[in-house]
Amino acid sequence: MVGRPKKPKDKIVKVPGQFDKDEEFGLTEMQTAFVFHYTEGASSQTDAARKAGYEFPSAAANKLLNGKDYPNVVKAISVKQEELRQRYAITPQKTGTMLWKIMETAYENGQYNAAVSAIKELNQLGGLSINRSQSININANLDSMNKDQIKERLGQILGANGSDYDPKDR
Question: Of 82, 88, 81, nearest to 36 (Cα)?
Fold first, then answer.
């Protein structure tokens, strides 16, 4: 073997040691394993079939997913994907709860900057504060302009006229 050994990859999801038949959809153990690996295992269809134990994974995956040969597998996959969408959906309620927990934990641990940041995010989420920024491209060489020219140019950019200035600024 040449080169460095590969680092073991962390598992994204804990894989059950054994899969049982799915009575709800009428799936075999291998079909249940395929559904799991395809939806939660971050696997391609062929890789999911290989992990599920199919002898010819590419052909098996195509048959399992075509909807004609095994419609219950396709139905189980769509139900599982919808469950995952619901579980991992980002909603204002989940985000607010998470930020509140972060704020409480940070405050209890004396991490006041993190607590203040979480409170700011909560205020934005609740609509209590708004970040506003404005970029203005002046395109002027201020070194070659006098005070009146600068005021005139700023008035053009900001939409102000000469009467808007305070007399002491003139």
Answer: 81
Residues facing residue 22 across a β-bridge: 27
Q: Over the stretch 126-163, which tens digit does the pLDDT of each residue have?
A: 887 776 666 666 566 777 888 888 888 777 777 766 56
Average per-residue pLDDT for the chain? 82
Q: Is the per-residue pLDDT at 20 higher than 80?
A: no
Nearest alpha-carbon partner for 37 in 24, 19, 54, 49: 49
What are the helix and strand counts (H, E) for the chain?
7, 0
Contacts of 102 (CB under 8 A, 6+ apart): 114, 118
Rounded to whole angstroms, the Cα distance separating 29 from 15 reads: 14
CA dihedral 73, 76, 81, 83 (to 10 degrees): -170
Report phi then psi at 27, rounded to 5.
Answer: -100, 150
Structure tokens at 62: 């195509």
- Residue 128 tokens read as 């209590």
d(CA 86, CA 141): 55
What pTM value is reported for the model? 0.52
Task: Specify the residue for token string 């995010």.
Answer: 121
Radius of gyration of the chain (CA): 30
